[in-house]
Amino acid sequence: MTIIEKIIKNHSDFEIVKPGDIVDVEIDARVARDFGGANVVKNLIDNNLTINDPSKTFFTFDTNPGGSDQKYAANQHFCRMFARENNIKVFDINTGIGTHQAIEQGLVLPGGTFVSTDSHANIMGAIGAFGQGMGDQDIAAVWAKGKAWFKVPESVKIEFTGKRPQNVTAKDIVLNLLAIFGANKLLGKSVEIIGEEADNLTLDERITISSMATEMGAIILFFEPNQRIIKELEAMTGKTITPVYPDKDAFYSEFHQIDMSTFVPMVARPGHPHDDTSVESVKDVRIDSAFIGSCTNGRMEDLRIAAKILEGKKVAPGIVLKIVPSTDDIWKQALDEGLIKIFKDAGALVSNAGCAGCAAGQVGQNGPDEVTVSTGNRNFAGKQGKGEVYLASPATVAYSSLAGYITDTSVEAPDLSPYQSKGFKLKAGAKNEKSTAQKSMIAEGRAWFIPVDDIDTDMIFHNRYLTITDIKEMGQYAFDNLKGYEDFAKKAQPGDIIITGKNFGAGSSRQQAVDCFLSLGITAILAESYGAIYERNAINAAMPILTYSPVILEETDLKDGHQIRVNFETGVFENLTTGKKSKINPFYPVQTEIFMNNGLL
């Protein structure tokens, strides 16, 4: 068996598991964050559920560690009260990013299992553990019974060959991988990365690479923990570690050899983490601000790299540099090593530990027309603010903050002449009342044909609305951040069916990206494939989602606005406008069970 198959087997009643098996998996550490935590608690209370094991259950407040937003503050306090009543440990606003706390505190160890309302919970692949981001209902169910159903994914092996160039950082490595595999070539796969250069990676570098599995569409990116990593984790956690390794005869659906000697410093262009190009090709793109932090690049090694570049220099006039360590322990170590003084002397803003720019509640957001170079993991439109975001390594961000434009080398006399950056305007959708479709295994309605791949959850339901917990209020915001469909909520009618492309629902773990369609009365969604977390959220919410092959579009002459009928049980697809039929993939058994139960809870 592969790493993921062994871990799932070890946490289940199965002796052997294989891709496609549906398995109830025991979860070692079960986490809710501050923005998702309130909804998790609400689900538990509304369904009269209790906590299975408080010692394995945690809150991590990392998206708004300042409690600077009233709704965030209210949600945090609500969770604290629930934690006190149920003896649940809270890693509060002074501790930093929850996934990093889980590693540093030993909440999960190599070979263990971890779930969180954080879509980057698969960062645990860095230590050879299984982590998954999940939606609010999923986490509530795990808190109540200690297990989660999971479909065993196929495994892929990637071998690094060649020598890693000296100027290529861990962030450059993962951006090079994104340039190769994009957002959906590894969709739903478990990936194991091997090779001499992979074995040489430090823990911090492994965390950087594994943290962007979600952006690649992968379930998880695994690194086998070697003795150096094991000793580091044992010293950090005070626990004895017994890692899990794949069998020598394990089966992999794909095998790729990638020559690291061809890797170069990279950036991701605004809009998509997988729209990657060399730093050289975008040199001299002017910036307004720079950000170093996030679960991808807020580690100690990242801060040391930045400090070495910034020491004795000043951030370019008019440029804002924001630095946010990932955990409070790293913040203190940076203080002890004199890095905080270097940052402040250079003119940077240093904030308390947390997620920062990836979440709307802390420093790192940008305004309309603002161009930012960031070490974050996502640059979806509107994700880090209303401006444009280029993703890059801490070294590139530090150099760029000194120059005033994107560069990965030192600049003695930067050209700081005025310039006009590009931005975009966001248009809010109109409110619609919720309508609930009749319970049936057949859906019939008007087709919304949206031929777009990689529609992420920020396009579906933007993070500025994440504090909303009432489904009735969610529908009005559906697709209001998807270009060309900003008025979708105003035009949608109860009974409509959405048909779209690959990797629908990529990105965040937010349940609202499903619930907004339930609010509008959308009766089904058809896509070529789904983001792994989104698929779970939709199934658990009894939102009918199905997959199809593009051949049905030709076979039925489907056009936007046609009247169609879909049978969830048989997979029969009928275009009532043209009178033509085809076949799509029907529900699988666990989906039918949850659908007929009107939801997971």
In short:
The chain is 29% helix and 18% strand.
Task: Please write out the topology.
Blueprint: H1 3-10, E1 22-26, E2 29-33, H2 34-46, E3 57-60, H3 70-86, E4 89-91, H4 98-104, E5 113-116, E6 130-133, H5 136-145, E7 147-151, E8 155-161, H6 170-181, E9 190-194, H7 196-200, H8 203-210, E10 220-223, H9 227-237, E11 254-259, E12 266-268, E13 276-278, H10 279-282, E14 289-292, H11 294-297, H12 300-310, E15 320-323, H13 328-336, H14 339-346, E16 349-350, E17 371-374, E18 388-391, H15 394-403, E19 442-450, H16 457-460, H17 488-491, E20 497-500, H18 512-520, E21 524-527, H19 532-540, E22 545-547, H20 551-556, E23 563-567, E24 572-575, E25 580-583, H21 589-596
Parallel strand pairs: 2-3, 2-5, 3-4, 5-6, 8-9, 8-11, 9-10, 14-15, 14-17, 15-16, 17-18, 19-20, 20-21, 21-22
Antiparallel strand pairs: 1-7, 12-13, 19-23, 23-24, 24-25
Helix pairs in contact: 2-3, 2-5, 6-8, 12-14, 12-15
What does this structure look like?
The protein has 21 helices and 25 strands. It has 3 domains: about 5-260, Aconitase, domain 3 (2-Layer Sandwich); about 265-405, 2-Layer Sandwich (Aconitase, domain 3); about 440-595, Aconitase, domain 4, CATH 3.20.19. With about 600 residues, the chain is α/β, with parallel strands linked by helices. Helix 2 crosses helix 3 (about 70-85), helix 2 packs across helix 5 and helix 12 packs parallel to helix 15 (about 395-405). It is globular. The protein starts with a helix and ends in a 5-residue tail after the last helix. A hairpin with a 4-residue loop joins strand 23 (about 565) and strand 24. The protein has a 7-stranded mixed β-sheet. Strands 4-3-2-5-6 form a 5-stranded parallel β-sheet, with helices on both faces. A 5-stranded parallel β-sheet has the order 16-15-14-17-18, covered by helices on one side.
